[in-house]
From TrEMBL, chains A, B:
Protein name per its UniProtKB record: Pyridoxamine 5'-phosphate oxidase family protein
Pfam families membership: Pyridox_ox_2
Top-level taxon in the UniProt lineage: Bacteria
Amino acid sequence: MAETANFDLAATGEPDGATLHRLGEEECLRLIAPGGVGRVAFGGADGPVILPVNYRVVDGAIVFRTRAGGVMDRDLRTGVRNVDIKIAFEVDEIDPVREEGWSVLVQGPFHQVTADEVRWTADVPVRPWAGGDRDLYVRVTPTRVTGRRVGPA
Amino acid sequence: MAETANFDLAATGEPDGATLHRLGEEECLRLIAPGGVGRVAFGGADGPVILPVNYRVVDGAIVFRTRAGGVMDRDLRTGVRNVDIKIAFEVDEIDPVREEGWSVLVQGPFHQVTADEVRWTADVPVRPWAGGDRDLYVRVTPTRVTGRRVGPA
């Protein structure tokens, strides 16, 4: 059986090594600033869920869209009632050939963008590839931003 | 402000549309079978965590490695005590230029591979890119496999 490289960035608690580097918050924010595709994790009826979403960074917050009534909406409504619920948002860039890459993890509370924030969201046009009505804007306010890079020292 | 496409696959509860397609379990398993880089989500001290890991599929289970004593280890030990704790494991392939791609979500309980399973893990060599001791094998037993694809009908 051929050996497979393991992009194991899980051990955030370990010190920097020859190939695993912790990223500072400033560099993390720089890496995710351009927006693009990230992955959001939240609690669901069948356990945790990870889903890719296109995101943008607006005023330091992660913004993405989803569909009202969808699986995330239900969870978001719970989040509205309980502001302590946090989600994870992750962006990475991985080069399997060179066996290097980076991963940034944003943690923080999330909530629907409310009616009085519509003007704010109007500056964040998003065109869902998946089509359909995805008129629910979600904002994640980062309370913790961490990152790690794997590659040459 | 330039418009950004939104790879919004979040609405798993909606019916198939012109561009959003649900994938059957068989196709999901076929897509993730080759192994590679996936992302695991689990509960952490500071809220949910998403981290990329390299994985393999062995006997229908997701297998990856992490470091004993790392952030995931702590959570895994909790999982060992409480077998009901589930995690999410996601694999995707996204083409931002063509605005299409797929995402497979595996949900299920996870646990450390124990001593009596060492022989089993010996068939799953993994070489961590990040280096260091990552002698903790983790297995996720899928109880729910779902997938979605965005692209032309």
